[in-house]
Write a structure and sequence with these properties.
single chain; 196 residues; mainly alpha; 61% helix; elongated
Length: 196
Amino acid sequence: MADSDNSTTLSSVTLGQGGEGALKVSAHSDEADPALALLRDWLRAQQVSQVLCRLQQRLEARLLAAACPAAMDAKVGYSIAYQAEVEAATAALKVQDRLPRTPARSLLGVVAKLEIVVGADRDIDDPTEFPWPHIESILRDLKEIAGSVPLERPERSIIQADCQRYQAIAADLIGLGEHAADLPLGQEPAVAVDTE
């Protein structure tokens, strides 16, 4: 069935592990429907936040296991990682805040907006309570009618660059920018992170 609301040619759907990832669509699609660009930005911010969360958790474990002399370096690395995670999560929330002001210009744009709403609330205490199963049902129905938004994991270098940027911001915010360069590997503000 032809859909008069959707005239954009779509790329093929490629999903990362577990369906996570960021939206990769052409600039033409982004211009045609700003909601698609919003979903791409939100998914990227979410993934960066998750990577930084895992880094912060690893450093927290090292901090707890560190002996007194090593504890100071571990604490500095942990403080930077914690603040970087906060900065990345804040960036994702700012993208979510743009949702009500971002128009959907196609059914896929509506799907993209609902993906953000459902994805943002996956960490709630009980996702089985009203209205979440109902909203997910509507999203499934829309995907059956309009199709899914093509998702693809962003390149590792993009995620690493975002993580490094948030770690640098965090080091500056907590006044450890100069000291952070002296940290052992794996505790620097610009650590290489595993995005898988």
